[in-house]
Automatic annotation (TrEMBL), chain A:
GO biological process per UniProt: phosphate ion transmembrane transport
Family membership noted in the UniProt record: Belongs to the inorganic phosphate transporter (PiT) (TC 2.A.20) family.
Residues annotated as transmembrane: 6-28, 49-68, 88-107, 119-139, 145-172, 184-202, 222-242, 262-279, 308-327, 374-392, 399-420
GO MF entry, a single one: phosphate transmembrane transporter activity
Keyword hit for Kinase: no
Pfam hit, one: PHO4
InterPro entries xrefs: Phos_transporter
Protein name: Phosphate transporter
A GO cellular component entry from the record: membrane
Coiled coil: none
Subcellular location: Membrane
Protein origin, superkingdom: Bacteria
PANTHER family according to UniProt: PHOSPHATE TRANSPORTER
From TrEMBL, chain B:
Source organism, top-level taxon: Bacteria
Name of the featured protein: TIGR00153 family protein
NCBIfam families: TIGR00153 family protein (TIGR00153)
Family statement drawn from the similarity comment of this UniProt entry: Belongs to the UPF0111 family.
SUPFAM superfamilies xrefs: PhoU-like
Organism: Halioglobus japonicus
InterPro entries associated with the record: DUF47, PhoU-like_sf, Put_Phosphate_transp_reg
Amino acid sequence: MEIIAEYGTVFLIMACMFGFFMAWGIGANDVANAMGTSVGSRALTIKQAIFIAMIFEFLGAYLAGGEVTSTIRKGIIDADVMADDPQLMVYGMMSALLAAGTWLLVASMKGWPVSTTHSIVGAIVGFAAVGISAESVHWDKVGSIVASWVVSPVLAGTISFGLFMSVKWLILDTDDPFNRAKKYIPIYMWMVGFMISMVTLLKGLKHVGLDLDLGLGSKFANALPVSAVIGLLVAGLGALLLRNISDDEDHENRFGSVERVFAVLMVFTACAMAFAHGSNDVANAVGPLAAIASTVQSGGEIAAKSAMPWWILLVGAAGIVVGLATYGWRVITTVGRKITELTPSRGFAAELGAAATVVLASATGLPISTTHTLVGAVLGVGFARGIAALNLRVVGTIFMSWIITLPAGAGLAILFFFIFKAMFGA
Amino acid sequence: MANGSPLGNLFGRSPIGPIQQHMQVATEAAEHLPELLAATADQDWDRAKEIHKAIADDEKTADKLKSDVRRHLPKSLFLPVPRSDLLQLVSIQDQVANTAKDFASTVMGRDLRFPEKLFPAVLELTNTSVACCQQALKAIQELDELLEVGFTGREVKRVEAMLKELDKLERRTDKQQFSLRRKLFKMEPDLPPVDVMFYYRAMALLGELADASEKVGDRLQILLAK
């Protein structure tokens, strides 16, 4: 307790720095994968992509990021074990942030594929299992998190497969794909609006302090009609945007106009993707920070059920925006340049499939890798015979990155943990 | 930094564009043949030489494109159609270019001039053979549209109709070739025997050109059949 009282402010400042560092890394690297698909298929310019990313990453983090933040903050480790030594929790979470941030920086400079989620989960499990005790880790929760890393790409792939098949039946393989596209694409836009507002209503509004009650019994029943209406508004806006697109009757490239209609849809799915990414990945930086802040502010009471202070989210959001502005735009451009084979009709299916999966995971509080989910979604479109050439070696590198990232994050976190312990005393 | 992006590395280079380009060049080689015949009929051997060179250049370009396609189709690539079908398609397309060049070389090798009585029919056969190549190219150019719809449905039917047209053209070359043989057979006593040998050889190559185009179509059809 004395340590917290003595160094409380120092801890908070350090934690903010490390949290910002981690968020910077997410903005610099991770967002590129979420936005790269839209840039690569030329549905968005780089400036538009960054603009969308900044707004919807923030909204996602703020409105739907609570569950994952709380998993990272108190779901992986058992805080009660540390009730007598709250400083250990502070050291551990600081070292987790620093370890994951450092690992991300090193790996991305070396060009290794890493996942922010895997780094932070590895780091937290590492410091808790080695620095504190093996019992302090909720292994069953860790197990379900790891399982979700396998399930999420598969689920995203299945959804994208289905979405692309529906596009084939409803739009592409018809006599008049252009007009069918204009007719049916608002339905997909409706799905985007419905999905995001469902998650926001179910998981987000309590953070903002709003409560919606139509008197329909359960929260879910309340959210359903509201989301449906919001979806309709989104679809209406989309239909308005679609009106200006006309068929250029190009016989050389018969699907050119159709793809331009899908490009409008991709603006919507890009928003969904950024929202989904914000709702899941911002927690990687914000979760440990929240754990530290609540421990310090309550004077050492770890289990205190204090609400997450608003400024913590601001640190995370600011870190991501700065990361995007300083480095992320360059990575988005490079990733986008490699994805030119993806046309909007496929890009949307991949993005919507991935976004739906990630948002679902966010609502359940499961930290998953947005990038790996998106890779699964793209493969799903590929299995529907939608993409000219996919490099399956990537699946191997993803497995490799799991095998390397988890111990690397854990090892670094253990190292930092003992350094902090030596610096500030146990 | 983006080296590490699994998403960036996920996308391989599409083989479809290069395959279409390869067929385009092979067809261009064949399209020179009527000009070549016209030049020989006029005994304009300088012009004929130029055309021969243009055909040889096209054939060389086609070879380069062919190995380019092969190099970019590693086994780890996941494609919407079997990789082996694509590789065989390119090999067969390459035969179009090769046969066109063989014909040109056969003509140029011994300053071959068809007898005036035979010439119109030879030109007609050449034109039909070239039309076969062009029809095959037309079908190959649908590959990107096929990809757009995921190799199913209406687009497949569209291409199948094109291939039917190709078959019809190829059958026409068979008939033309046969009647040409009969004509030449009747003229044989009045012509130098070695020339006759080469007339037959050149006519056979024109038939082979049409056959090669038809095989391109066959391969495409196999690729489309599930």
